[in-house]
Amino acid sequence: MTVDVLVIGGGNAALCAALMAREAGASVLLLEAAPREWRGGNSAHTRNLRCMHDAPQDVLTDAYPEEEFWQDLLKVTGGQTDEALARLTIRASSHCRDWMRGHGVHFQPSLSGTLHLSRTNAFFMGGGKALVNAYYRSAEKLGVQVRYSAPVDRLELQDGRFVAAFVGSERIAAKACVLAAGGFESNREWLREAWGQNARGEWPSDNFAIRGTRFNQGVLLRQLLQAGADTIGDPTQAHMVAIDARAPLYDGGICTRIDCVSLGVVVNREGRRFYDEGEDFWPKRYAIWGRLVAQQPGQVAYSVIDAKAAGRFMPPVFPGTRADTLPELAQKLGLDVPAFMQTLNGYNAACRVGRFDHTLLDDCHTEQLLPAKTHWARSIDKAPFYGYALKPGVTFTYLGLKTDETAAVSFGGVPSANLFVAGEMMAGNVLGKGYTAGVGMSIGTAFGRIAGVQAAQAAMKSGVHHAAA
């Protein structure tokens, strides 16, 4: 069979591409590797979109101008970002919501407990699952063909051009193709290869959970790397969050995240702190904590809070370990009690409490303590005490395909005429490291829409138009 535009993937970026290509007049086939009930990839687990806006807009308060968005991104990535593509994403985030609404997506104000996001992020009513379902309904109404349980095994390429894709032995030709099949985070062997062994002969990645879909195996990403496509990103960099150590191996999603880190202290299995828990607002820093935990012995850590933190963070799905004293908590968590108490006593003694305010970068900090806690530092001294065992949870990997403002895949610096990329497969262009809440959806929406339009135009230029089914 032959269509104008083939979209490989089934999440937000793929759906945006399919919808835009269809609206541009192309016939479109979308191939989703997952069965229908698991469709949507990681997008089904999302909650919001980070949006630039110069004045209050419906569900968004105040203003969030381009320069502030850019500075937020610059800070979390440490400068490892392509400014032109980042600014393209930021600007696109300011005018996509009317289009999204036109395809059935509804928005709501930020949820209780989603600290600091009412100004910067528009929440999807019903979450990412509702967004994905709305897009699929719209795609089907418009005549986009959708096939589930259709993983693409390989691509047929010729001189940097897309020719066809194979699902098993079936060959599917198209005039243009959009790759939006996610990263390689579900591929345990590739994670092992990327992270290697530590000095003790252990494989750190064996202790990672995959927060989202099990279907992002990176098959096409691997093939394109081997075919000489230009790449970007470090295979060990990822959106990696500290999650509850009791989380399932796949699809734990948002409810397994532990959000009380900034309200207490985090210790490793030796009972020692290893990073500033109060460095910045949680939406800007939550996605560094998975990598921090991954670098600790055994890839495990423990978030410890007292009764003063109760009600100040979004509760996880599982209750924490509770104790009436700190030594009892250490014992219940399986930590060395003297080492743990030395850490907690040292921390409590170093706290300089001013005016505590979790909505601001307040003046509660530690003195003469390494690592410091620079904000929200209060003694952990009010029973009951709670501890949460943490392990790394990978959302998506940042190794991807280098692209430009047209979303084209490039080979040796030459953009392909008919092969485009969107979503996690190219997010590393904007996210060299780090993360800030909602920006993955901003990238996927911006580049999905660009890729869809570009693919439709490339198909039309080929001179042969295939009518939609």
Automatic annotation (TrEMBL):
Family matches, as Gene3D superfamilies: FAD/NAD(P)-binding domain, Succinate dehydrogenase/fumarate reductase flavoprotein, catalytic domain
GO molecular function list: oxidoreductase activity
Keywords from the UniProt entry: FAD, Flavoprotein, Oxidoreductase
Residues in FAD-dependent oxidoreductase 2 FAD-binding domain copies: 4-431
Entries under Pfam families matching the protein: FAD_binding_2 (PF00890)
Domain of life, source organism: Bacteria
Needed cofactors: FAD
NCBIfam families: CobZ_N-term (TIGR02485), PRK08274.1 (NF006130)
PANTHER family per the UniProt record, alphabetical: FAD-DEPENDENT OXIDOREDUCTASE 2 FAD BINDING DOMAIN-CONTAINING PROTEIN (PTHR43400:SF7), FUMARATE REDUCTASE (PTHR43400)
Protein name, entry field: FAD-dependent tricarballylate dehydrogenase TcuA
Species whose genome carries this gene: Polaromonas hydrogenivorans
Gene that encodes it: tcuA
